[in-house]
Design a protein that fits this description.
Layout (H helix, E strand, L loop, with lengths): L7 E3 L6 E3 L6 E3 L1 E3 L7 E4 L6 E16 L3 E15 L6 E16 L7 E18 L5 E9 L3 E12 L6 E3 L3 H5 L6 E5 L5 E3 L13 E4 L6 E10 L11 E7 L6 E8 L13 E9 L5 E7 L5 E9 L4
Amino acid sequence: MPPPFPLTTFRRAAPEVLIPQLANPAALVAGVGAFPASWTTIVASAPVPFALTSLVVSSYADQFAAAVGTYLVQKTWRVAVATGPALSEVEVARATHSLGLQFLVLAGTGVSAAGYSTQTWHFPVAPVLINQGTRISARAMQEGSASGISLDLYLQGYDLAHLQPSRWPLHPDLWLKGASNSRSAVAPATGTLTVPPHPVTPWTWGSPVQVIAALDADYLIRGITVEPDLTYGVASFQDAQFQLGTGAVGLEVWRGAIAYPDNITPITMTSTLLEMDYPFLAYAGERLIVRHAGAFTYNKLIRVALDRLHQG
């Protein structure tokens, strides 16, 4: 028999709701040492009864120097999310991150040099239930070394009218099949998968790209890592959103969504694992697919993280 507690929670349908949806992330100006007095509107009216489950933030810090020497930046930033009308905001969630940056300016480098630290992060939060039609806003602050810093933000969550998470194992039979022997995997097993957006129109879904033709077992699809395609150099406007799903050609069903903010700087940015807060279940034999919409027509390179169930 399975234990009386869930090993994990998953779903089959109800893909994530991303805010802003198919649009650039919210750009935040970080106050120094304290939050700024005003909040930046993320969405004037929540489009659905929304369960906020995570913040996806891209951070960029820089340090410019004009003299030979070693330069060090140590910094902490925080992002707060609130609900309510302007001047009556109530904070409901917060994310934080610390970073360190060291670089050298050598003799003969030139008049000036610069060091950069860029990254995209996924921050799960305790679920916050937000009524449809509610204004959602955010603000940011920074502490530590003086340097430039920029932050972009997507909110990730679920439509409460459709989310029906389930516990795994589903029933004793699945437990007895060897659930305790499950293992994590990455697809593709080597290299990355190129996922193009729509070839002409920003923030329009590109064609589905096959990740796995037929899954060899039941899997929980957990998330992706993202890299810009260096074919485009270090171009900016790399913001993107992704959907993952299952189904034969022409019969695709989109089961999960992931945000990738990266519209801060022309410096190439990669990501940590960007997760769906509730992974979705894909069955043995199903075709696993992904598609991409972006702020510009730049490809993305991804890897999918998944957990095989009932490993024999």
